[in-house]
Design a protein that fits this description.
- With 432 residues, the protein is an alpha+beta fold.
- The protein contains nine helices and 24 strands.
- It has a 21-stranded mixed sheet that branches.
- α8 packs across α9.
Amino acid sequence: MTRTRKWLIGGAVAAGAVLMLAAGVISLVPSDAELAQRAAAELETALGVPVSIGRLHWQLLPLPRVVIEKLATGQPQPVQIDMITADLNTSALWQRRLQVDRAVVQGAVVPQLSLRGLGSPSATARPASSMPFRLDALPLARLEVRALTWVSRYGKRLVYEGEADFDAGWRPRTAGVRRPDAQTPAEATLARQGQEDRWAVNASVGGGTASGELQLQLDDQGGLRLNGKLQPRNIDLVSTLQAFERRSVIAAKVSGETVLSAQGSSPGELAWSLHTTTNFSTGRASLLRFDLDKAVRSVGKEHAGSTPLDSVTGQFDTQNTPQGMVVTLSRLQARSGVLSASGRAQVAKRQINAELAVDLVDGVVGVPLTLSGPVDKVQVSVPASALAGAAAGTAVLPGIGTAIGARIGAAIGRILGAEPADRPRRLAPVEK
């Protein structure tokens, strides 16, 4: 047999092997249209809502890759993703295992109200998966999210980006998330501590920091419990809330201690049940868009302006609920020269309900203020009992039940009474 003939036979054998290999791969991976149909069906089964896919394309060379375009859920406010690019692990494919080395999500819109409709109990009788692959123990090694728009319950749109590297069991090894268009850095990172379910947390926001640790535990019934502690330090409230397109009611730098907890059977349930408690304190501060002095003097009819404060302390709680987040401010103590205020407030469904007691005479007399109504149109009032006491020269205040002498009553009367328009509105000191 001549050398040329041997080369021809060898080439034919090699070509046949390549063709057989290609045929085997093609038999494993269906056509674009079939794969798109299967992917949509699998997602519908998992999410419990209709899912549409505009286009799906896969390739083998130079590396196995699947590209999904225009994915959307069939909901009144759909979850939409412009493009998902998934780089598949070659060796896992040959073993009929599905392992994604890297997935990139670009241009997503995620309405908060639509998330609760995903994975609903209505999809209980789920058929067995028809895909010819089984999920690997590490189904996803790295996730990158670019230009994800979060739509809040009330329509506010915020853009986020981030990335995460995973260990087996969907445990993040490292993760980061940030607000790319915030005027001041607003970002947070996670780093897993060895192979334990503990993560170090470091956040930068409002020119300050918050560092601490999160811990995940499994109970006997397979439920999840998340606990953590953070230490906010020198966080500017105005720039922090501006980073999330909200307005702060206080201009101050805050430090404190935060404890958080959540429990549920899935990461989603953890998020929906998250509760945080922060004990905080500030140095010099300013109550924005609210003049306590003017509110007391005008019997709640006027309060536009601001109130300088020497210090503020209190407890700030947040609780996620099916109806939205409930924010509670309690144990509030604010001081400004001869003025001090104490009380509590709660904000839920964009409605505020607050009670404050403003102390005007060395902490002896408390004039109660009630704040209520929508957060963008707060109504302020002073109970009639307080006004009646001031007019009579004595004050019998709710919760105190003590008759204040005529001299102090007269001082309150001056405060609640009218003053010349050209005279600055200041709290008059009481003669001793």
